[in-house]
Amino acid sequence: YVCAQLGDKVLVVDSDLRRPVQHSILGMSNRFGLTNVLMRDVPIEETIKVTSVPNLHFLPSGKLPRSSIGLLDSQRMRELVKNLKARYDYVFFDSPPIMGVTDASILASEVDGVLLVVQYRKYPRMISARAKRMIENVGGNILGVVLNNINILRDDYYYYYHSYYSQSEASEEPKQPEAVS
Fold it and tell me: What's the rounded Cα separation, in Å, for the pair 140 and 134?
């Protein structure tokens, strides 16, 4: 949303073929989308939707066909990624979790960068480290990590950390620039 509001041409692709949710969030149909484009049932131009946010476009996942094995691991997918990168300033692929599903690993190897989303305090740290290694093993470039589902009002450690730094920043006096000779 931020990139689109700043004037960049943005596309969000729901590439979670088993549990797509982006169409629900955006209030759009999921009847045709990525799967139809990859199966060559529908041209890409007919599947990309304009959203209510200027410069933000959306490609739903489409209905999961019975013969979906290897759908994302295809030359068509590589061509589609290249095509979309030429049309948009930013293309964001919402993928399934990397653990247990190969689709996310395939996507990580095809895109320019990966944001690893970790649900705060839900899984042991070693699971996150394993996910990171999986991305790196396929040649994925990790741009950063996003922690979601943090409740700062209920998490004592985060509250302490946030309060400590807020108080220490407030108590510091502004430093005067030193003279350079």
Answer: 8
pLDDT of 60 above 90:
yes
Helix (H, G, I), strand (E, B) or coil at 124: coil
- Residue 80, class by beta-carbon neighbours within 10 Å (0-12 exposed, 13-18 middle, 19+ buried)? buried
Each residue's pLDDT tens digit, 77-109: 889 999 999 999 999 999 888 877 677 888 888
E strand or H helix at 4: helix 2-5
**What tokens appear for 128 in the block?**
């996150």
> At residue 132, what is the residue type?
K
Residues in Cβ contact with 80 at an 8 Å cutoff, skipping those fewer than 6 apart: 37, 38, 44
CA distance 142 to 148: 17
Give residue for tokens 């990309």.
Answer: 48
The amino acid sitting at 168 is S
* Amino acid letter, 107: L
- Tell me what pLDDT residue 181 has: 43
Of 18, 107, 86, 26, nearest to 59 by C-alpha is 26
Distance CA 100, CA 11 (A): 26
> CA 82 from chain center: how many Å?
17
